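Re-running NmrA family transcriptional regulator to confirm reproducibility after the cluster update. Everything else is unchanged from the original entry.
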Amino acid sequence: MNEILVLGGTGTTGRRVARRLTALGHPVRTASRNVSRAGGGGHRLDLDDPAGWAPALDGTRALYLVEPDLRPGTDRRERLPLLVDRAVAAGARRLVLLSAYGVDEADDGHPLKAAERAVQDSGVDWTILRPGWFAQNFSETFWRPAVLSGLLALPTGDGRTPFVDAEDIAEVAAAALAEDGDRHAGRAYRLTGPRAIDFGEAAALISAATGRTVRHQDVTAEEFVAAATAHGAPAEAARRLAGLLTDVREGRGAEIGDGVEQALGRPPRSFEDHVAAAAAAGCWTPAD
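Result of re-run:
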């Protein structure tokens, strides 16, 4: 079948990767634990059930890899390495891994460290994507409810980060999966936006685009964890997220990466561009 398989095909990046590849005329199928959500041509692929992987991997020439479960308290380090082995054995000759900023410098306990090593040692063409915080966290996922409430209470201080648009991540992934030649082979791309901003500026930009009052309030990590758990978040997950946000406060991850320009030959999309598009699409319009 010679298809490109997109793991996590319903997720923030996966659905965009699949859409781009389809628009370019490539045969694509998505994979998801819940086949009803995998979309047209979707396959069931539960990373906790290796015995059921073969139908999804059969005929796959390239594979977009993402670990959908990085919750604290769960050990997911062996799932993607095993999938890499199975995919290569089934005939895949190109792998693109969605990793994260800083994994290359992390210790072996990081849940994505083994996945990076597995693709690098796979014996086939590979590309690793290391993005920072997604701009879509404000419009689609983590922080959208807070934006709708008007208050982003986060332990980030005036720390700055270069939010990356998931559309850029998807475009780089699609290029690495589908372009002929080896331009992207053996590359690890640090993907960011064009400049670093703090959460106060992010809130102000969203306010200006939507006409809503949105502000950022700095809180301590302990206050953030208490509020998150009061709203039902598992304590360990809240503490881990607080640690990542505190990293922003302390200036980690503020560096601008050139991965988008290296891969695509153009500058990355700005946070302002994302906010304008998200506002026009009604991402911050409350449901009736």
